[in-house]
Design a protein that fits this description.
Blueprint: H1 7-10, H2 17-40, H3 42-48, H4 53-81
């Protein structure tokens, strides 16, 4: 009987751990930089929209909550696509 195994599926591709490490570090740095920019811009957000600082803080809180929801979802969608 013939085996129905796919030879391409049984091959293991080697991934350089340094590329993965640098990619994760770059993504973490970009997320930190993006959050810092949003935090620093609270007075400008408040001033341009004629809002109080507390209302500007809600913008930052909403941004951080949306990131906390979207980031795990994007990682999960990547696993399903592979």
């Amino acid at each position: 009987m013939a085996s129905n195994t796919n030879p391409a599926a049984s091959e293991h591709t080697h991934v350089n751990p340094w590329i993965v490490t640098v990619s994760v570090m770059l993504a973490t740095f970009m997320e930190l930089l993006d959050t810092t920019v949003v935090n620093v811009s609270i007075p400008h957000i408040s001033g341009n929209l004629a809002a109080s600082v507390e209302e500007g803080t809600w913008v930052v809180t909403s941004y951080l909550v949306s990131n906390a929801i979207i980031l795990p979802m994007s990682g999960g969608s990547r696993r399903k696509a592979a």
